[in-house]
Amino acid sequence: MNTETKQYVVFGLLVTFGVLGRILLVDYPNFAPITALAIFGAAFLPNKRMAYAIPLGAMLVSDLFIGLYDGIWMTYLAYAAVVAVSLPIFKQKVSAPRVLGATTLGAVVFFVISNLGVWLTGVFNPSMALYAADLSGLVMCYEMALAFYRDHPTILGDVLFAGVLFGAYAWYKESQTSQTQVA
Fold first, then answer.
1. Helical segments of 31-71, H only
2. Is the pLDDT assigned to residue 183 strictly greater than 60?
3. What residues make up the domain containing 87?
4. pLDDT digits (tens, 9 = 90+) for 110-121
5. Residue 104 and residue 109: Cα distance in Å, rounded?
């Protein structure tokens, strides 16, 4: 299998993992592999456009099944931002502390941007407003988001799925090294 074909196979597998994770875990808010996919792509994929395309592709396909919603663009922007902030973390090397750091930062970035999107949806579409279109409404939005986050800790899913992806990749690389040494 040539390199380009391998890249497409990896792309398809990772997008499928993200789609299935979101669809099968739809009853567990914000417990999904998308942030982990964004971080994994930033760490390992040589084609950085693919690092963005994997989480966004998984979101798009799964949203077609789960349903579209107001403010979707901010959710997609949040995942693109997770890739962007993760790229420099892995520029020199990949390590467990860097993965944990990127995962934590990714959860914070997603929290800030996605909840800003909740507030902005109401600012630009007053009929959808959950909060006042002023600073007090923005503060209230983040206060309510913290309460939601306490009950549905996004970071637990992010850490779990990052562990699965990075662990599976490390196992795969190790098995490839073992096979090469045997041959």
1. 34-44, 48-66
2. no
3. 3-182
4. 999 999 999 999
5. 9
